[in-house]
Amino acid sequence: MIYPIQIRAARSLLGMGQDELAKRAGISVVTVKRLEAAGVTITGSAQTNARIQIALEKAGIIFIDQDEDKGPGVRLKNPLTD
After folding, report:
1. Which of 7, 11, 41, 72 has the smallest C-beta neighbourhood within 10 Å, fewest atoms?
2. pLDDT along the chain (82 residues), means of 10
3. Distance between alpha carbon 68 and the CA centroid of its chain, in Å?
């Protein structure tokens, strides 16, 4: 399961707008905005959430699960280069 904060953070790392994420995930921009505006728990269908996660992973994001000590996060799949 991914969280709204992870979606926002992933887009930020990639420099990706909501429009681009919507296009890559095959969903509407309104849906992206609604999901990102959700509180802690993401709303929407499991299929929509999976489409977003897959689109961001294909763009170079790794989702980091939360555990008992640390919260959820994201990181870039590849190291930065000059």
Report:
1. 41
2. 94 98 98 91 86 98 96 95 82
3. 21
